[in-house]
Amino acid sequence: MEKLDYYKEPSTTDKPEPINFALNSDGVEEDMVNHPSHYQSMDKEHNIECIDAMIAAFGRYEVAVFCKLNAFKYLWRASSKGGNMDINKTQWYLNKYKELGGEDQ
Questions:
Q1: Residue 75: inside a domain, yes or no?
Q2: Is residue 104 part of a domain?
């Protein structure tokens, strides 16, 4: 796939954008795109994120498809609901899709 001129490859050293952060119900600031607390297990001792439990339960292929579809959803609604945070979530799901093998499966 050809990269467009305005596409910037995500860097692992880039800091999350401030738009990603919000106060949770305890008044603590958290990253709502990369590690929102509502997608972590209730068992704080093991701290398992939902996406990791999904991979264990359904396998990499199924979760990769889920990530691709979720990216589509967040991009679709970005202009009418979540704005830049939805764009960042789109990128997160596309990165996870590629990490899980994406089209290579």
A1: yes
A2: yes
Cβ–Cβ < 8 Å for 33, 16: yes
Query: Residue 31: which H helix or E strand, with range?
Result: strand 29-31
User: What domain range is 82 assigned to?
Assistant: 59-105
Distance (Å) of CA 81 to CA 37, 76, 86, 102: 21, 9, 8, 27
Q: How many domains is the chain partitioned into structurally? A: 1
The string of pLDDT tens digits covering residues 10-36 is: 455 555 566 666 766 777 777 766 666
The verdict on pTM exceeding 0.85 is no
For 32, list phi and psi in degrees, rounded to 5.
-80, -5
Residue 48 lies in a domain: no
Average pLDDT, integer, range 3-8: 43
